[in-house]
Specification:
The protein is 21% helix and 34% strand. It is of the alpha+beta class. It has one domain. A 3-stranded mixed β-sheet has the order 1-3-2. The radius of gyration is 11 Å and the shape is globular.
Length: 53
């Protein structure tokens, strides 16, 4: 992420969508084939940090 600061979290993780979890603190889970798509579950603070506004 440091070399491409304008990149989205979804693009960096190579997933369709990133969901925020309030209970995760430092782990990101990647799930393959959820309704045919690759998704991630990340700490809410990490998702907020890379939110596009």
């Amino acid at each position: 992420m440091a070399e491409q600061p304008d990149r989205t979290l979804e693009a960096a993780l190579e997933v369709f969508e990133v969901f925020a979890s309030g209970s995760l603190s430092d782990e990101v889970y990647i799930l393959d084939n959820v309704a045919g798509k690759r998704i991630a579950i990340a700490p809410a603070a990490l998702k907020a940090k890379y939110r596009r506004g």
